[in-house]
Amino acid sequence: MNLSVENLSKVYLNEGNVHTVLSGVSFTVQEGQFLTLLGPSGCGKTTLLTILAGFQDASGGSVLLNGKKVIKPGPDRGFVFQNYALFPWMTVQDNILYPMKRRKMPRQQREQRLKELLEMAQLEGKERLYPHQLSGGMKQRTAFVRALAGSPEVLLMDEPLGAVDFQMRQILQEELESLWLKDKTTVIMVTHDVDEAIYLSDRVIVMSSWEGIILEDLEIKLGRPRNRNGEKYLRHKENLMNVLRKALVKESDASGKERELCLA
Ligand SMILES: Nc1ncnc2c1ncn2[C@@H]1O[C@H](COP(=O)(O)OP(=O)(O)OP(=O)(O)O)[C@@H](O)[C@H]1O
Ligand SMILES: [Mg+2]
After folding, report:
1. Ligand approaching nearest to the C-alpha of 14
2. Residue 93 in this model has a pLDDT that exceeds 90
3. β-strand pairing of 17-29 with 60-65
């Protein structure tokens, strides 16, 4: 797996007004890495992730997956939407089987993979339930293994825990981590939660409110599972909080004379 984002830009036209959301965004992702895109609301995280997924086109620059330009969605990229977005009319097992059917995987192989994924996500016995009959954690695990079911090269997750309250969120982060450790698919996750970014990521890219410019590209080399109260952990947290504060400020010139607070 080799993913590179090269000089990407995205411009929206809103009623004749040009709105540059992304400009000159470049980075490459290594195989097996858990990468998080962190940034304030409205800075272009979802826009970037949906371009990587091929759901929409960039205005300039390119995304290359294994050297091939991304122009449309494909089974080589799994996507976890905010609020899980399971198909409510399908049972857990039909949700998980869906990407495999799309990939035209032979029946026997599908059944085998389904068994593995249900076991991995501790969902055995729940396969015939519908999403509304599941707990938040079960929905999240179903969404995660469904996205893995088609064996994507890279898993894209847009605020997968965005709708969850604080305490549940920490528990689900731990579940997400242990699921990911069993599989180690390359992940690009979007969040605006600093603690979540440090707990889960090998690398954090901080985007600014202003044209999605990359303010920081930080490696987090702490062992797993991480101690949220550890000294190094807390230092990373303070550092990223400071960067995130800067992410809200647009500096129009190098001297910083003219500053504009972008409260997106
Ligand atoms: N389809 C669209 N047409 C026009 N403008 C859009 C469109 N989608 C997003 N935008 C604008 O682009 C900017 C970035 O939106 P985006 O959804 O990428 O932000 P985000 O970083 O994901 O924010 P959040 O954390 O709130 O989800 C916003 O100002 C938004 O209004
Ligand atoms: Mg978003």
Report:
1. 1
2. yes
3. unpaired
pLDDT band for 260, please (50, 70, 90 cuts): very low
Whether 206 lines ligand 1, by a CB cut-off of 6 Å, is no
Instruction: Give the per-residue pLDDT at 258.
Output: 39
Length of the chain (residues): 264
Q: Is the CB of 45 under 6 A from ligand 1?
A: yes
- DSSP, collapsed to helix, strand or coil, labels residue 20 as strand
CB 217 within 8 A of CB 27: yes
Residue 179, CB-side half-sphere exposure with 13 Å CA sphere:
27
pTM surpassing 0.85?
yes
Which pLDDT score, from 0 to 100, does residue 12 have?
Answer: 95
Q: Indicate the residue type of 239.
A: N
Domain(s) of CATH 3.40.50.300: residues in the chain: 1-70+155-162+186-264
> Which of 239, 247, 263 minimizes the C-alpha distance to 213?
247
Q: Report the CATH superfamily, name and number, of domain 1-70+155-162+186-264.
A: P-loop containing nucleotide triphosphate hydrolases (3.40.50.300)
Answer whether 175's CB lies under 8 Å from 137's CB.
yes
